[in-house]
Amino acid sequence: MTVSPQLRTFPTTPTPRAAADDALAGASAPGAPWPGSPELLKATFRRHAAGVAVVTAYGDGRPVGFTATSVNSVAAEPPLISFGAGTGSSSWPVLAEAEYIGVHILGEHQSELAATFARGGADRFAPPTRWHHGPKGVPVLDGVLAWLVCRVAAKIPAGDHRIVIAEAVAGDPEGTGRPLLYHQGRFNALRD
Question: Are strands 80-86 and 131-133 parallel, antiparallel or unpaired?
Fold first, then answer.
């Protein structure tokens, strides 16, 4: 799921459900199921710790990017990844036309970078962000744990998002440090 300001500010305790929802759920007892809804999905995935990545692309003469916690390895042969991208995001018009994208795995020291790429209206590529044009002209962020440049293979409609499937064509997995995680609406470090 793409990190958005709405997701980051979702309350930690569930909002009260309407009487009709309680009746549908069967009872208001603890553990009673919630009806399917965006709130249910968000509340559930707040409990799922996810790695933090930044997806980048270049088009219309400018770099774009966003923070994502939905990056997944799909297949080793060929080397495919996937992620979700919101069609209402400021990055989507460029991403929708991009032939190549970058995927950057962030380290625990990069929570500010993750927040910058999650914030609407931010100049994400201005200092202090450090980046360069990498393979295929894709913006590559400096100092990340690992990065890939991928050729977009498919964009599959999924509600207000697209599931992007892309094939790795270049990258560098040798950054140092520990991964940044997203859990309970915050960026966190891995604990031993």
Answer: unpaired
The DSSP line for 104-161 is EEPBGGGHHHHHHHHSTT--TTSTT--EEE-GGG-EEETT-SEEEEEEEEEEEEETTE
Stretch (H or E) spanning 83: strand 80-86
pTM score of the predicted model: 0.80
Q: Phi, psi at residue 139, to the nearest 5°?
A: -65, 125
Beta pairing class for 180-183 and 100-105: unpaired
Q: Which of 84, 105, 129 is nearest to 182 (CA)?
A: 105
1, 163 contact by CB (below 8 A):
no
Q: Residue type at 42?
A: K
Distance CA 23, CA 10 (A): 24
CA-based nearest residue to 105, from 181, 184, 190: 181
What is the C-alpha to C-alpha distance for residues 139 and 146, in angstroms, rounded to an integer? 14
Q: 85-137: per-residue pLDDT in tens?
A: 999 999 999 999 999 999 999 999 999 999 999 998 889 999 999 999 999 99
Structure tokens at 92: 């989507």
Scan for tokens 């036309």, then name that residue: 97
Distance between CA atoms of 173 and 103, rounded to whole angstroms?
11
